[in-house]
Design brief:
With 292 residues, the chain is α+β, with helices and mostly antiparallel strands. It has 2 domains: 139 residues; 135 residues, Aminopeptidase (3-Layer(aba) Sandwich), CATH 3.40.630.30. The chain has 8 helices and 12 strands.
Length: 292
């Protein structure tokens, strides 16, 4: 395994032309790469509120793509599954390019191997920020009791509400980009029917559950958000169940979602709806790198 087996490009079309079959071969573990590259393909870098161009990479051996990654600044590097040897070669490759890498996310084993390699080769300090679990929907079960109300697809009249809730959601999870891209996020979700709202009988929205576009037979439910003052009433479960049902109606063979493993409430809720563990993920932050 040589660092030169990894190839980096700023050209999304060139990346997808070479990596698409590989990414489609395992839609669940590749869900983040699939959904983010689809957003970039349809909306451009502004989809993530940044003027800095994203970059992409893939590992090719014997004419076949074995792994891939991407980064959309200012966010962390996202990885597909890697062996320890592949992770080490990637760290050497990226360090040699001098590309800033503020952190990395991926399945737990792969991203931990990369974080350790990045420390060895750059002198950076790696800190575990979050442990996540990717769930796959089995048999859909609507959690009881179902709160009064109904679900509907968010439309143009909900734009201000969606933007506000997105800002609040990103604040809740410790991300700093909500203000910059809330309006464009709301516009994009409205354009393809990507948000289900649960509303009370009088028509007041009380919770939302998002859906990514259908790519490679998979849709991911994200984000799920209920304002703090309205939590504990079953609204998030009702919204998530309806979003999951909608994902299957839209043709998804796999319906997926991520949770923070430190939140037992959400993990318990999604399992009651019918989600089953698929893969554990982790998110690391890096500080103090000194790339060669």
């Amino acid at each position: 395994m040589r660092p030169d087996d990894w190839h980096t490009t700023d050209d999304l079309d060139a990346f997808l032309a070479r990596a698409e079959d590989f990414l489609h071969s395992r839609p669940a573990p590749h869900t983040v790469v699939l959904t983010v590259t689809e957003a970039l393909r349809t909306r451009g870098p502004q989809a993530y509120g940044s003027d800095e161009a994203p970059f992409f990479g893939l590992l090719e051996q014997d004419g076949k793509v074995r792994a891939a990654y991407f980064r959309t600044p200012p966010y962390r590097l996202s990885l597909t599954p890697l062996t320890a040897e592949e992770a080490d070669a990637l760290a050497v490759h990226l360090a040699g390019l001098g590309r800033p890498v503020p952190g990395a996310a991926g399945d737990s084993e792969s991203v931990t191997a990369f974080a350790e390699a990045w420390q060895r080769h750059t002198g950076a300090t790696a800190a575990l920020h979050q442990r996540q679990r990717l769930y796959r929907l089995g048999e859909l079960t609507v959690p009881e009791p179902v709160p009064q109300g109904r679900a509907r697809v968010a439309g143009e009249r909900d734009r201000e509400l969606l933007a506000r809730w997105f800002r609040e959601f990103t604040e809740d999870i410790g991300e700093s980009d909500g203000v910059a891209r809330a309006d464009s996020w709301a516009d994009a979700r409205i354009a393809y029917g990507g948000i289900l709202l649960w509303e009370t009988p009088d028509g007041t929205p009380v919770s939302m559950a998002g859906l990514t576009p259908l790519v490679a037979g998979q849709i991911r439910v994200a984000p799920v958000y209920t304002p703090a003052r309205l939590r504990g009433r079953g609204y998030a479960g009702a919204a998530t169940a309806e979003a999951s049902r909608t994902a299957r109606q839209r043709g998804a063979e796999e319906v997926l979602l991520f949770t923070d493993l430190a939140n037992p409430t959400s993990n318990g809720l999604y399992q009651r709806i019918g989600y089953r563990p698929a893969t554990d993920f982790a998110v690391y932050g890096f500080q103090g790198q000194s790339s060669s």
